[in-house]
């Protein structure tokens, strides 16, 4: 029986285990018969696959975390995923788990998005017409730069550049420091003067347009030849056959979550994986060493008990390791041989960058607190407001509720509350780690009150306040990241081909990216078995 081990029980590790199971099951069920004269040979050598998942904390799910308090859904991590592009694989995963009825799309009004700039909340245009006829101050001059963009020369010298340099070169410095800075703050909480335009989604698509068509604007109007084009078109078939009615419907939404919150996905994955006798999930165990000495017993993995430093566990006879853990942790467990010095150098000095973000969830005993409908707003770092942005959770997913915890609560009272989430910290505000939870809550309340022009004498103090710092939660893809990943892959393929790495340190920070990469990795491995 082949035995694979997955390091990390976050969304990448859990979905990888699921896809390995699915791909292996499909392979052994579709019998490949080879007829040689009168002999028929079954080409399948195994009928089972053993999977061990190693998670260093006491729970699976990683940064996908939902608090359910008094019926309120409070997202401590991602509040949803984009269903287009790579997100289609997440929709298919949801379908295979039987969770279609548990999904929820945002309200139509959540398409309204804002930027807090120059001491005012400015709505972003919802249509091309609005950009021309009624642009907010934050977008002054944008139309002119877009018109000029196709006539600017293509970059033919650099393999990569910062987001700031790229947007400034193709459009303008103002666009870079306002709109783009705010957008990247909402995704990566990073510094656009350091982050790679080639590696950071969704701007990497703009980089590809310039490389392929010499212009971003031209590229947007050209048919795409990428592999994602097929999955973006619900009328086309893909490797799994035609898209289901559920996928076709949900991929039209700007974002997708669950009635009980995003953790419903990882909870279900964990439960279904654990129900398989050939899958073992180790929590509170951290991999501390990989031994790959040449012998017939495969790879040996040493685990440390998080609750007892003297307690060790050894897993033998491992055929393949899939790492979804952060770059610095992967570096620490590679074999001690000098053959891995270059890989460790890349992991520790080129991919070690992460940022800390504080998340503050506030629930006000007041309906329509915001006074307008929308997704929320982001804040350009140049405005020095001390926060990254605010999500208007009640407006995004008004029907999101935890029915179990609502049994003893008044539904009418629940419907007359407002939920918002404030993000603080990131690359431009590293001192967030010095703040207590009480200080973070106070900052969040002050900024929400100021930005939404709330009357302090009328607006009640939030009845529910949850705060905490997510340490090293978002990897930072600095300029050159793409090449560093390719070099790391080549080095490990040469010296430790039994190890495959995926995860947010390398291939995208969004849920949809993690799941799409997990599926591709699982299918490639099973096909080679």
Terminal-residue CA separation: 11 Å
CATH topology of the largest domain: FAD/NAD(P)-binding domain
Q: What is the name of the CATH class of the largest domain?
A: Alpha Beta
Low-confidence stretches: 31-46, 226-237
Looking at CATH, the homologous superfamily of the largest domain is FAD/NAD(P)-binding domain
User: Which range best describes the helical content: under 10%, 10-25%, 25-40%, 40-55%, 55-70% or over 70%?
Assistant: 25-40%
Domains, number: 3
CATH architecture of the largest domain: 3-Layer(bba) Sandwich
What does the overall shape look like? globular
Structural category: alpha+beta
- Major sheet: size, sense and barrel closure? 7 strands, mixed
Computed CA radius of gyration, to the nearest angstrom: 24 Å
Number of strands: 23
Number of helices: 19
Q: Average pLDDT across residues?
A: 90
How would you characterize this protein structure?
It is a single chain. The protein has 529 residues and is an alpha+beta fold. The chain folds into three domains: 202 residues, FAD/NAD(P)-binding domain; 81 residues, protoporphyrinogen ix oxidase, domain 3; 122 residues, Polyamine Oxidase, Chain A, domain 2, CATH 3.90.660. The chain contains 19 helices and 23 strands. The strands form seven sheets. A seven-stranded mixed β-sheet has the order 9-8-19-20-21-18-22. Strands 13-4-1-17-23 form a five-stranded parallel β-sheet. Strand 10 and strand 11 form a beta hairpin. Helix 2 packs across helix 19 and helix 13 runs antiparallel to helix 17. The longest helix is centred in the first third of the chain and has 19 residues. The protein is globular.
């Amino acid at each position: 029986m082949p035995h694979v081990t997955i390091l990390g029980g976050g969304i990448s590790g859990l979905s990888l285990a699921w896809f390995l199971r699915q791909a292996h099951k499909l392979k052994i069920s579709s019998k490949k018969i080879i007829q040689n004269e009168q002999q028929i040979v079954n080409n399948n050598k195994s009928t089972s696959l053993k999977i061990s998942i190693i998670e260093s904390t006491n729970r699976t799910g990683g940064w996908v975390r939902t608090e359910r308090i008094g019926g309120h859904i409070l997202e401590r991590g991602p509040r949803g995923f984009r269903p287009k592009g790579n997100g289609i694989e997440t929709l298919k995963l949801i379908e295979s788990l039987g969770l279609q009825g548990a999904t929820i799309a945002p309200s139509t009004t959540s398409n309204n998005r804002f930027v807090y700039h120059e001491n005012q909340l400015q709505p972003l245009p919802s249509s091309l017409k609005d950009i021309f006829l009624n642009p907010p101050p934050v977008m002054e001059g944008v139309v002119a730069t877009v018109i000029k963009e196709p006539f600017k020369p293509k970059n033919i010298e650099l393999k990569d550049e910062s987001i700031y340099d790229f947007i400034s070169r193709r459009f303008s410095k103002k666009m870079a420091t306002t709109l783009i800075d705010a957008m990247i703050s909402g995704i990566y909480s990073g510094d656009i003067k350091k982050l790679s335009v080639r590696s950071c989604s969704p701007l990497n698509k703009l980089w590809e347009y310039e490389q392929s068509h010499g212009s971003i604007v031209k590229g947007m109007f050209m048919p795409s030849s990428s592999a994602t084009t097929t999955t973006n078109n619900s009328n086309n078939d893909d490797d799994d056959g035609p898209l289901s009615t559920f996928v076709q419907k949900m991929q039209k939404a700007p974002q997708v979550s669950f009635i009980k919150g995003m953790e419903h996905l990882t909870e279900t994955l964990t439960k279904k994986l654990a129900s398989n006798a050939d899958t073992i999930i180790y929590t509170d165990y951290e991999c501390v060493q990989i031994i790959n000495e040449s012998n017939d017993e495969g790879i040996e993995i040493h685990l440390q008990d998080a609750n007892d430093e003297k307690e060790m566990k050894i897993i033998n006879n491992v055929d393949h390791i899939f790492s979804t853990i952060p770059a610095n942790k992967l570096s620490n467990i590679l074999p001690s041989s000098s053959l891995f010095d270059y890989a460790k150098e890349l992991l520790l000095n080129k991919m070690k960058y992460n940022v800390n973000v504080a998340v503050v969830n506030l629930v006000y005993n007041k309906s329509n607190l915001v006074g307008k409908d929308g997704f929320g707003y982001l804040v350009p770092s140049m405005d020095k407001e001390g926060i990254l942005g605010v999500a208007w959770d009640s407006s995004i997913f008004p029907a999101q509720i935890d029915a179990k915890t609502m049994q003893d609560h008044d539904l009418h009272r629940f419907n007359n509350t407002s939920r918002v989430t404030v993000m603080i910290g990131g690359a431009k505000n590293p001192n967030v780690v010095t703040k207590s939870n009480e200080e973070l809550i106070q900052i969040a309340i002050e900024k929400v009150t100021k930005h939404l022009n709330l009357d302090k004498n009328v607006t009640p103090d939030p009845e529910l306040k949850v705060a905490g710092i997510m340490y090293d939660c978002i990897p930072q893809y600095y300029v050159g990241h793409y090449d560093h990943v390719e070099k790391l892959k080549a080095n490990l393929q040469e010296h430790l081909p039994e190890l495959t790495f995926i995860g947010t340190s390398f291939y995208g920070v969004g849920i949809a990216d993690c799941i799409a990469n997990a599926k591709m990795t699982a299918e490639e491995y099973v096909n080679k078995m």
